[in-house]
Amino acid sequence: MPMRDWFPVGGKTYAVLGLARSGLATVKWLLARGASVIAIDDNPDSVIKAQKLGAKTPSPIPWDQVSALVQSPGVPLWFPTPHPITQEARENGVPIIGDGDLFRAAHPEARFVGITGTNGKSTTTALVGHILKTCGIDCQVGGNIGTPMLDLPLAETYVLELSSYQLDLSEGLDLHVVGWLNISPDHLDRHGSLENYIAAKKRIFKIQAGAQKAIIGVDDPASEAVWREISAIQSAVPVSVNRNLDGGLYLQEGWLMDGSEPVLHVTLLPTLKGAHNFQNVAVAYGVCKALGLDKMEIAGAIQTFPGLAHRQEWVRTLENIQFINDSKGTNADATAKALATFDKIYWIAGGKAKSDGIESLSSYFPKIVHTFLIGEAQEQFAATLEGNVPYTKSGTMEKAVTESYQLALANGIANSIILLSPACASFDQFQDFEHRGTVFCQLVQSLGEKE
Hints:
- The chain is an alpha/beta fold.
- The protein has three domains: 13-97, Rossmann fold, CATH 3.40.50.720; 103-302, UDP-N-acetylmuramoyl-L-alanine:D-glutamate ligase (3-Layer(aba) Sandwich); 313-446, Mur ligase, C-terminal domain (Protein-Tyrosine Phosphatase, Chain A).
- Helix content is 35%, strand content 24%.
- It contains 15 helices and 21 strands.
- It is globular, with a radius of gyration of 23 Å.
C-alpha cells in the first residue's frame, strides 16, 4: 500500500466536513485514535453533536496544522460548485480524502471487495456478504449500504457498496475484487455530466490492489466500453443477462452459465426476481468465485438469500392483491426493473423528481392499470402519463395506498400488483427512501383493520 502523510492519525489534526452518519463516525474514530478533529457542517445542530464528542470548531481554520480534510460523500466536491471549505483546503494544499481512505489504511492486511453501478449495488453487496458468511468467511458489509465503514468491526474481508460520491473522494481503497453492475444517467446535478459520472465510477479500478480482479456487467453500452478498457490491462470477467458470452457469465434458458457450465437456475430464486436481479446474482457469483469460493457452495448460498427491504420487497397479499415495496426505485432506470418484473400494476409513483423524468418508461405503460401520483413530481408525471395511462393525483402516500387498494378491489383483476416504485428521490415528503418504504409498509399492514 502507498505511504500516506496523513496516516497514521495519532497526534495529527483533521478537518471533517459533513457531520451526518458517516461524518460523525469519522469524528469518533479519529478522536478514539488520538487525533484532533475540527468539525464543520452547515447545520449548527450537527456541529454541536460533534462538539459533544470532543471535536473543535476554530474559525478561521488553521490549515497549516491540518493533515487532511475528510469530506463526507454528500458534500459537493466539484459540481455544481465545490463547498467553500473544500475550496479552502485545495487552495491551502491540504489533501481531501474520504472515510474509506482512513478505513483502508487502518486495515492493510484485510481483503477488500468493492461493488458499484447505478442500480443493484445494495442487493449485490448484501448478497456477496451473505454468500461469504454462509460459506464460513469472516466478513463485514458496509459503506454506502447500512453501516459507515469506520463503524465496522474487525474482519478478514470487507464488502463495500461504493457510490460515485465515495469513489470521487477516494485516494486509494486498494480493492482486491471489483463488481461493476451497470451505468445509466444519475446524479448528473452532482457530477456535471454523464461522462464525469462514469469517470467517478471508474475510479474503482484505478484504486485496485495487486491481484486485481473485476466482474463487469456489459449489458449497457457504457459498461461494455468499460469492460473493454479494463480487460485490456487486468483480469475482467464480463457478465450478461441478454446474450451468451465466451469466457464470461451469462443466462441461458433461466440458468446462470459459467462458460459452458450451468450453475444455478436463477428464475426459481424467490427473493431475486427479474432480469436486473439476475444480473445482481451473476455479478455476486463472479465476485465470490474470484475470491476463491467453490461454485456449488456459492450457488447454494444464493438460494438462501432473504432479500433486502425496499427493493421489490413483498409486503402483503390482501384479497388476492400483492403489495410490493420498491421504495429504492429512486430513478426511472431502477423503476423500469420493477415494472418489467410485474403485470397488472397499480403504480404508486412520484416524489422529488430527477432529471430523467419517466418518459423512458413508456414501453411499460401497457402493463399499468392505473397510476397514483404523490409528491412534488405529480404534475410533471401527470403530463407524461396524459393520454397513455389513467392516473390519480393522490398527493400523499396515505391517499395513494388507500385509493390504489380501493380501485384494485373494485376492478377485481386477479393477481393484481400494487407497486410502490417512485422513480424519484424521497426528500420532498420523507427523510430517505427507507422512511418512505417503511411508511408504505405500515399503511399497507393497516388496510382492512377497520372493515
